[in-house]
Write a structure and sequence with these properties.
The structure holds two protein chains of two kinds. Chain A is mostly helical. Chain A contains twelve helices and four strands; from the N terminus they run αααααβαββαααβααα. The chains are: A mainly alpha, B alpha/beta.
Chain lengths: 312, 264
């Protein structure tokens, strides 16, 4: 009995994913076409980059709820830098990533210096970033961005949509960092037993600040790509992303109690989220019902994580 | 083996004092620990044992008194300070990262790295760390089925052995163990004690905190009894008995009228 349930923990979501794909493919032949699959990958590229940041926070046993608002704010800031200040595209991209990193630093300071719980610190910055995004734009999207900028989200490298290329690079680099560098090992260690790492002479608080900085910067990059794809810095666009990103992290097998999870899992979780949305769209399920479907999926994934913990 | 290996003490404490508000957790503790000496730190709950080892291991700092390492006065304010003086601590149950395999658990904080970019992106030398892990386990006669196993799958004794290997690998001169056998079965406890004897043979000083005086009585050379933050007395194994130590723990005074007739 217990053996079967352990297997279910491990492969249950993979099975669910495969079943879902088969069902959609049967009901809607357009699902399994190259162009649709590339479309799914392009759709998940932003969420998955944001999810990488959220993954790091979850891996340390924390969480970053601000990633969605930060993505929106970053897109807005990038648009302002290019459109209002008339600066080059590179500055726009950097400005977007930088504002994300700054919010990340604020998260890190609240968590490590003011000793706030991660969820409350990032809830605070979530609203703060959202407020800033609306103040900067007066609530009106800034559209008509420079062509080279829009290329980031809409262009192609040969046959590959450019955001997929960016996503691939981000995932490969992050996976390498997490599995081959001292930084990665220590972050895993902090997730497993922060006290043990501290007693080993590592400045755990500093590592946590770096993690939240990276999380903010990743959300910033995701937001910049999103703005580029939409050709607009829109203050309310990234909000749904926090849910999708964290769901992708958990679906990918990352434990909410910290210490376990892999970058490749984040990628698979993102793909699951992407095919779910894409399939529901193809099947003409109204978007409000899609929210319900995603919520149920997250509930199932978290309950499996909890069950695995209890059995351990 | 005899205790005071005629050399000078590895570490000397004098007048160590620690208070929390108006309450003294430790008052005027003087203590010498010699290389190759196995010292049992015993006493009731609240006697100050944990506070004392925390001060030596840098987990908290004393309010007064001096620490000398090999005759030199030092300040130990962080765990990193203690490690610099080759003092390693094995904490009861917060020593290991369950989610990782053996090598990271031994090397965390002092990883073997190749070159790297900046301070954070130092690239791990994983094969070297794996190799060294195997070597150190073999040296201590520790059998672990597979060093790629996550630590949470190991038994209590194996976990303790990993923690000890970690200390040894970094040339510990003094190893502090907080309740090293609390969670272990009989056979595993025996193994840990034989490891401790191995440490003594290598001239490494060991401080063991234990509630189970019967158990440490066999392995320790010296007994240090604390009660409510004060040093009740220090006894050498050959000159005392289990009964005397127990009396000191409970009564909090060092009665001299004890005949060491039935010692162990």
């Amino acid at each position: 009995m217990s053996k079967i349930s352990i297997k279910w923990n491990k492969y249950g979501l993979v099975i669910a994913f495969v079943v879902w794909c088969v069902v959609v493919a049967i009901l809607e032949p357009a699902f399994l076409t190259t162009s649709n699959l590339l479309n799914v990958l392009r759709q998940i590229s932003m969420v998955s980059i944001i999810a990488i940041g959220a993954f790091l926070a979850v891996l340390t046993g924390g969480i970053d709820l601000s990633v969605g608002s930060v993505a929106a704010l970053s897109g807005v800031v990038a648009a302002i830098v290019m459109k209002r200040f008339g600066m080059a595209v590179a500055w726009g991209v950097m400005g977007g990533v930088l504002i994300g990193a700054l919010i990340g630093v604020a998260n890190g300071v609240m968590i490590t210096r003011m000793k706030m719980a991660a969820f409350i610190a990032t809830l605070i910055s979530m609203n703060f970033a959202k407020g800033l995004a609306f103040i900067f734009t007066d609530g009106v999207p800034i559209s008509g961005l420079p062509r080279p900028f829009v290329f980031l989200g809409r262009g192609y490298l040969f046959f590959l949509p450019f955001p997929i290329v960016i996503m691939a690079v981000v995932f490969v680099v992050t996976a390498w960092i997490m599995h081959q560098t001292r930084f990665g090992m220590r972050v895993y260690g902090i997730g497993g037993n922060a006290e043990a790492v501290r007693l080993s002479g590592v400045n755990v608080q500093r590592y946590l600040r770096i993690v939240y900085l990276v999380s903010g910067a990743a959300a910033g990059l995701g937001g910049v790509l999103l703005a580029s794809r939409l050709d607009s810095g829109t203050p309310n666009v990234g909000e749904s992303y926090v849910f999708d990103a964290i769901t992708a992290v958990v679906l990918g097998g990352t434990s909410l109690s910290g210490g376990s999870g892999r970058i490749v899992g984040v990628f698979l979780g993102s793909i699951f989220m992407g095919t779910l949305g894409n399939g529901l769209n193809l099947l003409n399920v109204p978007s409000y019902w899609q929210l319900i479907a995603k919520a149920v999926l997250l509930a199932v994934a978290v309950s499996i994580d909890m069950k695995a913990k209890i059995e351990k | 083996m005899d205790t005071a290996t005629r050399a000078r003490p590895f570490i000397s404490l004098s007048g160590i004092t620690k208070h929390f508000g108006g309450v003294y957790a430790l008052k005027d503790i003087d203590l010498d620990i010699y290389p190759g000496e196995v010292m049992a730190l015993v006493g009731d709950n609240g006697a100050g044992k944990s506070t004392l080892i925390k001060i030596i291991s840098g987990a908290c700092s004393a309010d007064g008194g001096d620490i000398l390492v090999e005759g030199r006065k030092v300040r130990i304010e962080t765990p990193a300070d203690a490690k610099r003086f080759n003092i390693e601590t094995i904490y009861q149950d917060l020593a290991l990262m369950d989610n990782l395999d053996l090598a990271p658990n031994i090397f965390i904080g002092r990883e073997i790295v190749r070159a790297g970019i900046g301070n954070f992106f130092k690239v791990l030398h994983k094969p070297k760390m794996a190799e060294e892990t195997v070597r150190i386990l073999a040296k201590l006669n520790i059998q672990v089925p597979d060093i790629k196993r996550k630590v949470f799958t190991l038994s209590g004794g194996e976990r303790q052995a990993v923690a000890i290997s970690r200390a040894i690998y970094f040339n510990a001169r003094l190893i502090i163990m907080d309740e090293p056998t609390a969670a272990l079965g009989v056979e595993e406890t025996r193994k840990v004690y034989s490891l401790i004897c191995e440490l003594r043979q290598n001239g490494i000083a060991v401080i063991i905190i234990s509630h189970n005086i019967n158990e440490v009585f066999d392995v320790a050379d010296t007994f240090v009894v604390l009660k409510t933050g004060r040093l009740v007395g220090v006894r050498k194994k050959g000159e005392t008995s289990l009964e005397e130590i127990l009396r000191m723990i409970i009564a909090g005074n060092a009665a001299h009228a004890c005949a060491p007739g039935d010692e162990r």
